[in-house]
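SEQUENCE-TO-STRUCTURE ENTRY
===========================
What this section holds: a protein sequence and its matching fold, both as plain text.
Tokens: labelled as protein backbone structure tokens, with as many entries as the chain has residues.
Question of interest: how does this chain fold, as expressed in backbone structure tokens?
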Amino acid sequence: MNLEVIKEQLKQDIPEKRYLHTLGVIETAEKLAKRYQADVAKVKLAALLHDCARGFSDEELIQFAHHHDINVDYVYESFPALLHGPVGAVVAKNKYHITDEEILHAVAVHTLGDVGMGDVAKILMIADAIEPGRAYRGIEVLREQVAGCHNNINQAVLCCLEHKIQVVLKSKYLLHPLAVDARNDLLLSISK
């Protein structure tokens, strides 16, 4: 399935606002892939599909996850929207016939991160956080921080993860252990 066919299908599967966000993530991810000398085609495909399950209701995400043996822990139970990443990876594989594990992993972990993320996953996480259509408190500071990381992709991802963690802590939401593990893994990588 090529990008244009997937785009047409996605227009039907996700809300228009989410689709416009997806286009912004693709644009940003392509620029980042060139900056970090990553595989542009893989990064663009991961960006295109990263929110393919974002149109699911909370109940649909939980049911889909249970049906496909995705671990639904207490944090996911409390905030099912976080499941759109792991559920999206299964949808990308089953509906859009994506078999590249690097792309599927990037889709699965783009919200919370993971230990040992590859460049595609790192770039997707950054692009999702700073794409031009994003408008939330602190976005300009985060964009400046990412730009200031120049060619240090681990530092750029760390900025994004720490921003997300700070938002979660300030909001008194549950912090998912995957985000903490991803942050710690990046810190260890940077300090080597």
